[in-house]
Amino acid sequence: MADTFVNIVFPSIPRREFTYRLPPDYALPAFPGQRVVAPLRNDRAIGFVINFTNIPPKTVALKDLYEILDPEPLIPDELFRFLLRLAHYYLAPVGKALAAAIPREYQLHKKRRLMVTDIQPDNLPEPYADLYHRIAAKGSILLSSLTAKYQRPVLIKGITELKRLKLITETPIFKATEKRRNLEKTINLAPGIENRLLEIQTLLKKAPRQGEIINHLLKNRLISNTELTRFSAAAIKSLHTKGYISITVTDRTVEQFWKSFHLKEKQIQLTTEQNQAFDTILKGIRSRKYTTFLIQGVTGSGKTEVYLKLIHAVIAEGGRVLVLVPEITLTTHLASRFRGEFHDKIAIWHSGLSHVQRNVLWKDIRAGNYPVIIGARSAILLPLPDLLLIIIDEEQDNSFKQQEAEPRYNARDAALLRAMECQATVVLGSATPSLESLYNVATGKYTKVELTSRYSEAPTATIHVVDMKEEWQKTGEYNVPVSALLLKKIREKLELGEQVILLQNRRGYSPIILCPDCGWTPRCRNCDITLTYHKSTSQMLCHYCNLSELPPHSCPRCQSTHFLYPGYGTQRVESFLREKFPNSEIVRMDLDSTRRQGFTQKVMEKFEKGVIQIMLGTQMIAKGLDFPKVTLVGVLNADIGLFMPDFRARERVFQLLYQVAGRAGRGEIQGEIVVQTFNPKDTTIRCAIQQNLPKFAALELNERNPLNYPPFSRLAVILVSDTNLTHVVDAAQQVVQYLQPRHKKTEILGPTPAPLSKIRNRYRYMMIIKSRKETDPNGTHLRNILSNFLSSETYNKISRQAQVSIEIDPLDLL
Ligand code: ADP
Ligand code: ZN
Ligand code: ZN
Q: Phi then psi for 610, rounded to 5 degrees?
C-alpha cells in the first residue's frame, strides 16, 4: 500500500479528522469504515477509518495507529458511503453518523472477548503460539485477563495476526451480560450410540441419574428445553463429556419478540388497479436504477397488499427489502400481516429491543440472514446487503424524524440517499402524502401511482361534526370533554358489544391550573411554558424538562384557595369516562402510560381480543385505527394544534383528521366518526372531513408559496442556546452577521426568541434560513454556506459562548 497515513474520526469529537501513521508491519489491511484503536489525548479511543493519504499532518506530532479491530470493515462499503452522504446532507458529525449505525457495544474497546474459531492452526507462527494456546485452552477469554501476561505491543500484534489467520475472532462484551439471551437447549442421543450399548448398561447401574436420562432418550428420542429442568444438570454435563449425548442450542433472543403477534396469512389476488401499481413499480426495481414511487392510495385500498407482492418479487430475484413503519407496537396488524407472509425471513427492528437482541440481530442482518426487515426509523442505518427496495409506509409521519441526537435525519429522506447509493427503488406510501412529496411528484422527482378505490365494499364511515360552542350554549357547561351526541353513540356501541376509540391530543389531567380571582397560573421555573396538572400523581409537570411540583394550597399572588382546572387532558377524560361507563374496560394510551416496557403490546393484544372496549389516547393511536370491531371513533378536540406557531400546524391537523375520517369499518359494519370542534367552519377541518386532499393541498400551497415555506423552499434552523440570555442574544447576532454578507440567494429570518423561548433553564434564539428550490434545487447552496460557517473561526468563537445547533429540513419550529 502506497499510502502511509490514515484519517480517523472519533464519535466523541465532532467535526474533526485526525491523521495517524499506519505501522508498516501491520498484519491486517485497513479499509474505510473499519474500527481502529488510536491514541487520543491521554487515552485511547475507538475511531473509524475514513480514508488514506500520503500527506502527513503539519501541526501535530504524528502518532502510530494502535490497533485495527476488525479484519474486515464492520460497516459494509455501501452503508459506509451512505453514512458519509447522510452526514454531509444533514451537516452532522461523521463520527456520530458512523457510530449510530453500529450497536453501542462495538464502541467499547476495553471489554472484549477473544474466541478461537474452528480453523485448525497448522502453521502457527512461533511468536504467537503461546497466546493462541492460552486462548484455545479456554475456548474464549477476556482481553483484560491477558494484559498482565504479555507486553502490550506483543499482545496487540499477536491478536491482530491471529485474527488475520482467522484463528480467533472477537466480540464486545455487553454490560447486560449474556444472561438476557434466550437460549433453548435440546438434548439427543449422540450418533453411533447403538454400538456402545454395553457401556451404557454398566452406566445405568453405576449412575442412576444419568441412566434415567439415557432411558428417557431411548424412549422419546429427545429432551426439549421445557423438559430440561426435570433432569439433573450435573448428570447431563457428565453424559455430554463422555460423548453419549449431544446438545443443540438455539438462540431465541430475537425470535421471542414475535410471540405476541399472531400471524395473519391470506391468499390474495390483486385487483386490476393494484396490479397496475405492482407492474409499474416492479419495472422500476428491475431497472436497478435509483427511482422513487409515491403510492397515493385511500385507506383500505390495498397498499399493504401491493407492498407484499413487491417484496416477494424482490426476494425471488435475490434482493433484500427494508420496510419502515411509524410505530410497530401500535400497528400490530401490519407487523402480524408481514410475519404471516414471510415467517422467519423477516426480522423486526425497533427501539424496544434489548441491547443483546440488537447485537444478535444486527450481526444476523449483516450476514444476510434476513431478506426482509420491518422497522422504525433507525432501521435505515442497518447493514442490509443487496438492498433493492425500501418501502416507507405513512411517509408523512413525524416519527420518521430523528430529533434528539446527531445525526438528526428524516428516515424517509435518508432512504432516498441510501437508495441512490445502492441503486435501489424507494416506495413511499400514504393516503395523505406530505406536501413535500406531492411537490416532488409535480416536479417529476417521484412517480405517482394511485389506488383510487377501497378494496372492500364496506361503506365509508358516517361523520358527525359537533360544534362545541353550541354544546356549551345548550348545556351552560363549557368544560365538558364529551358531547351529548358522542356519549349517546358510545353507549350504543358498547351495548352492541362493539369497540370505541377516542382521540384527545393532549396528555395530563388539565392543561393548566387557574386562579379565577387574579388569573395566576403556574409556570415552569426552567422553561417558558405552563405546567400541566397530572391528577394521578397530584403533580404539576413540565412536558419539556420534566420538572414536577405539588400544586400550591393557595394562589401565590392573591392567596385565594379556590382553583379552576379548565381544559382536558387524557387523564381527565379517562376519569370522566370511568364515571360514565363504570362497567366497561377503558385504557389510556399516552406518553405517560406507554412508558412502561411492553405495555403497548399488551394493550394492543387485549384490544384486538375485545377485552378492552374503549381506547382513549393521544394521536399516537391514530395509526392503529385498524380493528374490525371498532365502529366508532371520536375526536374530542379537533382544534388542538390548529393554532400552533408552525407553518405545518394545519397540515398535521388535516392528516390526523383525514386518517380518522377516512377509515372504513374494516369489518362488515359501517363505522361512525364524531368530530368535536370549536371551529366547525375552519377550512382545514372541513377539507379533512370531506376527504378533499386536492382542495386542502391547493389552499395550503397558495399560502406557503409567497412566504417561501416548504415545499417551495428548503429550510434550515440555527438554534442558539445558553443559560445566560446575554450570551445567547450576542451569539445569535454574530451568526447573522457572519451569514448576511454570504448568503446571497437565501432568506434569513431572525434572530428571534424561539416559540419555546426557554427550556431547562436555557434561553433559545433561532434563525430560519429558507432557500428556494427553483434557485437551489438540491440545497447545495444552503449546505455550502452552513458548512462553511461550521468550519469558520466565527463558529469556533461563538460555540465557546453558547451552544449552536443546525437542523436541516426541520419538522418542528419550536
Ligand atoms: P391500505 O394499506 O391501503 O390501508 P390494506 O392493504 O390494509 O390497505 O387493505 C385493506 C384490506 O383489504 C385488508 O384487509 C386487505 O387484506 C384487503 N385487501 C386489499 N386488496 C385485496 C385483494 N386484492 N384481495 C383481497 N383482499 C384485499
Ligand atoms: Zn390568584
Ligand atoms: Zn420545564
A: 90, 10
